[in-house]
Amino acid sequence: MAFLNVKSVEEVYKVINSFKVNPGEQIVDIVDAVGKTLAEDIYSPYDLPQFNRSAVDGYAVRWEDVSGASESLPSLLEVIERLEMGTAPTNELKPGSCVEVPTGGMLPKNADSVVMVEYTENFSDHEVGIHKSVASGENVIIKGEDIKKGEVIMNKGDQVLPESINLLSSLGVTKVSIVKPVRVGIISTGDELVETGEEWCLGEIPNSNGPGLMAACKLWGGIPEYYGIVKDQFNDVKSTLKKAVNECEIVLLTGGTSVGKKDYVAEAIESIGTPGVLIHGIALKPGKPTIIGQIDNTPVFGLSGNPVSAMLCFKLFVRPLLNNYTEEKTLIGYLNQNIPSAGGRQDYVPVKVNQVKDKIEVKPLFAKSNSIGVLTKMDGYIIVPIHSEGLAKGEKVKIYLKERG
Amino acid sequence: MAFLNVKSVEEVYKVINSFKVNPGEQIVDIVDAVGKTLAEDIYSPYDLPQFNRSAVDGYAVRWEDVSGASESLPSLLEVIERLEMGTAPTNELKPGSCVEVPTGGMLPKNADSVVMVEYTENFSDHEVGIHKSVASGENVIIKGEDIKKGEVIMNKGDQVLPESINLLSSLGVTKVSIVKPVRVGIISTGDELVETGEEWCLGEIPNSNGPGLMAACKLWGGIPEYYGIVKDQFNDVKSTLKKAVNECEIVLLTGGTSVGKKDYVAEAIESIGTPGVLIHGIALKPGKPTIIGQIDNTPVFGLSGNPVSAMLCFKLFVRPLLNNYTEEKTLIGYLNQNIPSAGGRQDYVPVKVNQVKDKIEVKPLFAKSNSIGVLTKMDGYIIVPIHSEGLAKGEKVKIYLKERG
Questions:
Q1: What residues does the MoaB/Mog domain cover (chains A, B) (predicted)?
Q2: Is B31 at the interface with chain A, CB within 8 A?
Q3: How much is the ipTM here?
Q4: Do B162 and A215 touch (CB under 8 A)?
Q5: Disulfide-capable partner of B69 in A126, B75, B244, B321 (CB 3.0 to 4.6 Å)?
Q6: Which chain B residues are within 8 Å of A324, Cβ to Cβ?
Q7: How many structural domains are present in chain B?
Q8: Of residues A104, A202, A212, nearest to B51 (C-beta)
Q9: Is residue B1 part of a domain?
Q10: Residue-number span of the structural domain to which B348 is assigned
């Protein structure tokens, strides 16, 4: 009987990090870029604001003209212009004059401050009384105060958020280059599997990893390409894998990853190209019988048929290779009971999380490794390290949250 | 000069919670349901597993037949069947017999345990030596152990995650009913606005809230319907609003929400239908000049033209009405400096967050209220409560994380 040559999770990440998945770039309208990964640095083409703007409705003044103004002794100024939104002032301020400006409106030349309309009184169309003095620069947003021309406003690799779209459009940017979604081939293997929706006999089960992995790819920015269920026959596994490797940037297989007599995934990967199988067996629970290989430049993952294991290994090892990957959300919490562990492998234990005041309580969900139910009941995972024989009640742990869409 | 009759954020949420947005339901393939909101409770049509399954490769036995078995004194059993995956056993166990089963394979009648293949030795095609005793139930997943027939496995209102798809497909469920995306009408108002991508003159600015709000709707599960830029003319605002109310389930306007002479949004809402304007002014910074109204059954939001305010109010008040709304992600952290506040209004202060060991440090980003740059620099908001005059360095605060896609 063959045995797996088990690698640590750290060793696995070294391999994952060496993979270069390059789906290319595409230029899209900014609104369609939301949620995607930027493929270029973006520099501001302008100062923002582009001109000195008023932060309030009021009168643009030279501050020294209203110095000492008060309710009982207002300063009288000549109104040389009443500015409408969307227009630029045509006059510049001379001593003793002012321009009425709306919020966001452009200040005339020589104006350094704006008096809020609440502190003014119109004496005539051309004359206003100012009841309050202002500091130089008061109620003014200076040209370039928010963003400077030439400043890097977004970086290659950033995820584009709705707020980014406000910024881009305010600078007149209408299109950006984003990283194309990665095409992920998905092959389910197993004599016991039938397609979901078809009738099944006793002893058979509907394929759950195929649809689950397609959904995961879709939610996390990839394009799933489903190659159906392949029976546990070497030639069938090999020919389907070959087709998928030609058409996709990453290929996933599920099932057939152990070392039993009908486990053909490792052999199929080896038979198609080099370097072939890089890892067969991970010191990880669930997830031990996982294969990671490479055929030419295409990463190939043999995930276990066990759905808990397959979905965990997808998140740990495949998701980082999809475009819009963002760091995992983690929290620090405290265990509410002991967790035993065998040692010699990294245990991923599903947990429920509960914040009580500012203390986060962590409750492990114990279940047999192929429980599908626990997948929907848990809030996240905690990790029992490889050389630990368990964690004690009250111990501080990092929670890897099950991420929502 | 008119003044706003300002309401507290709590009063605003009472109004928001009274809105009924009903975009209807639609039946979709399970993979297309990922990230969407379930419109029905789902009951398990079967036990899961549907039959007693082996958790390992090995021999299904009656535990009493191998009681006391050891390496030096193995129990000898007759192999009456060697089961292939995807088939059901055709024989039942009689005393002294066993069936070879693969991982996940169905147990024959009368078998209560499985001995791992590692602890067995094939003497002939029909005879195996068992080197280890097992407890009753060992290495067996009992029918219904994971999920019971009739159990509610997902609830109406749940967000569908990839793991949910594994569960649904393993139960043979191929389609589910989800809540349709909400159609959100977006109208930008302002004489100073030009469409992003068009040339603009000094004093004009490109429309940033239109694209920003479209992106936010899109990212968070709605369907944006853009009605373009409307000049600050009562009849234009009214006719465009009327069209949008007829075509969408929610309508957003930006700009023209204050009480200046060219602010027509409130008047337009009042002129079209009842109950009209429900709130005009919120004790919130940024976001004071916000209008919330209702025309027949359609919620209408007049958001400020200030992008920081518009995007914050979208998240606070509009996003909860979109389908796939999940609770906001929050963290508890500690301020690294004082934050002053005027009192009498709820201040939303943009912050950067930094976890140092298990303590979360919160650094406020001070910026003028219409800084677009801060939108992309912050990690989230903290709230200075309405009756507070500020928060002190070291104080414990709740952080509302800027949510990613």
A1: 185-324
A2: yes
A3: 0.78
A4: yes
A5: B75
A6: 405
A7: 4
A8: A202
A9: no
A10: 330-401
